Amino acid sequence: MKNLFDITTVNGMKLKNRFFRAAIGEGLADDNGHITDELFSVYKELAKGGVGTIFTGITRIEKDEVPDQGAMAIYDDSFILEYKRLTDIIHKYDSNVVMQIAYGGSHSHSPHLSSKIWGPSAIKEESSGIVPTEMTKTDIKYLIDSYTKAAARAKAAGFDGVELHAAHGYLLSQFLCPHYNNRTDEYGGSIENRARIILEVYTEIRKEVGPDFPILIKINSEDFMEDGLTKEESITVCRMLAEVGIDAIEVSGANSSSPNVIAKNLGSVRTKIAGSKEKESYFKDHAIQLANEISVPIILTGGNRHIEVMEDILKNSNISYFGLGRPLICEPNLINIWVETNEKSPKCVSCNKCFGTYGKTCVFNQRKQDNIILK
Asked: NADH:flavin oxidoreductase/NADH oxidase N-terminal domain spans which residues (predicted)?
């Protein structure tokens, strides 16, 4: 019978348990995207805390394009040695680390915006107000090469794999979304065409890194917006990725550029779920269906809280892994606590106050530290 603390493998990557730290944009890199002492500390605490595999925060692949303020970067070889130090630290604690690589496009949330931001079409992004420059085929080829080089650098730096961020409204997600992609060439129209750039990114990375380096992807279950990616289309894309050899698929959801998504609490980091276990793991239905239809390992992210809820999903579905974000912000050692006693409830209440703090830290922990200082 499957257990959350099973030892498993994903394309040769050994996982000591079924828990992933879902990507959190800590916002602690310097202006050029280089890692800081604060970031070394964050990742060391996560590794010490027992999580089997860590997804890094979104890592930018272009020097002049910043998806989120304070995002890490991997746009040239100057990053390799510092990331080698990071991966060595994490590996000392028998944890894995997978670099999440991305181009933000018009969904970028940073004051350091480049003068030219690409998108699949020149359609205004609803949350940022940015109208991107529609990509030419030459631009697309250039960006695919940037993804490929980023992945090669990640491998050279000792990362255990890379994850393509194709969710939440960033560029690859926009290509999948009819609202933002009204192209009439081979990158627009049918879902097969809208997914083409993602398949090409995967294919070129695989050629570069070889067959034994894990390549994962994060994708929306659906966009939850008018003219957005539907759940049926999402499954179609995942089938295509499975056919070409993707190593694991992380299921999330929601295009957070849509005001409707935010107003109706349909985003990837939903509030008001702590009071009811039925509200947890809110993308599970889609992930369960997907896991029944393809053989690729599925990582369920979004609202995972109580260990008994995840145990039930694991035992009664084909879902393989679980991503946790906010609970590990609050308690980086939560997995070690669960090793000792699986009845411990997480302290995180999904208030999202951490997203308004420097470095994405739990406000409860800040208050505790303030009290200690005051005393």
From this structure: 4-335
Q: Is the pLDDT of residue 70 over 70?
A: yes
How far apart CA 98 and CA 26 sit, in angstroms, is 15
pLDDT tens-place string over residues 119-142 = 999 999 988 899 999 999 999 999
Q: Would you call 115 helix, strand, or coil by DSSP? A: coil
Alpha helices in the chain (DSSP H): 37-48, 80-91, 137-156, 171-176, 191-194, 196-209, 231-244, 259-263, 284-293, 307-315, 326-330, 334-340, 363-374
CB 330 within 8 A of CB 344: no
Architecture of the CATH domain 8-374 = Alpha-Beta Barrel (3.20)
Query: Which residues share a beta bridge with 101?
Result: 59, 164
Domain boundaries, the chain: 8-374
Task: Enter the pTM of the model.
Answer: 0.95
| Helix runs in 63-217, H state only | 80-91, 137-156, 171-176, 191-194, 196-209
